[in-house]
Amino acid sequence: MRTCPPPGPQSSFLRSAVRYWLFVLGSSLAAALGASLSLQAQAQERPPSFVDAATVVPGLIVEARYAGSHNFVGRPIDGYEAPRCLLTRPAADALAGVARELAPRGFVIKVFDCYRPARAVANFVRWAQDLNDTAGKVEFYPQVDKRTLFRDGYISPRSGHSRGSTVDLTLARMDGRELDMGTPFDFFSPRSWAAATDIGSEAKANRALLTTAMRHHGFRPYPKEWWHFTLAREPFPATYFDFPVRRGKGWTGVAASTLVSAKAFLASLRALKHIKRL
Predict the structure, then answer these.
(1) Residue 16: pLDDT band by 50, 70, 90 thresholds?
(2) What is the pLDDT of residues 219-231, one digit of tens each?
(3) Are residues 93 and 164 in the same domain?
(4) d(Cα 211, Cα 277) in Å, to the nearest integer?
(5) Cys-Cys with 74: which of 53, 127, 135, 230 at CB 3.0–4.6 Å?
């Protein structure tokens, strides 16, 4: 029977080298995971410059379409966990000015979408790529081939809404009844363009009233959607946020993502200990 010779200096050196590189690997892994946790937390936190517009804009009606199922996808969209309108403080203040200007005429503002998490935009992109998912076609894009949504500009991989100073809205009477705008919100059609001519005279006048008031308070319109306006001097012109729309100030998503990453880190350490025993 062959016996193993006692470990020599070369074998001891090898074991020491393995222990050293395991230590380096573990330290690097911990640092990388720590950085990942930090980035996740940053992505989840609502900046203090964002406010609930309903607390700032008088008479605001919030019908957060993407927090429910009444939208072109047909179900709630990723990142919308509550029917709230979050905006940067400058955008909310400017919108309040619009509301105060229109109130004497008996009108209030009704919003459909405000800040939009980047994950929601990614959800739209995935939906657009699934040509078999047409739950909202009859109501929202009856004359549009879903294969052309990107080409025609109805869906984009980025949205100004994620910068926090863009709002989709309409005008309503004090009892909540919407004014005639020619097409519904999110109707994919040239008839929804701000300058469309194939709509009624009342709708044209209502669109003009909305656009004039929004421009007067610093918003610029989007030519292809009568409901879409962006604050011209937005505070974050190049930043696309991804924190979820939630009620209150509790950001449980941070804790959840942290817990998942912590579990992954502990599993990695257990794997390293197993290697060390070999």
Answers:
(1) low
(2) 999 999 999 999 9
(3) yes
(4) 71
(5) 135
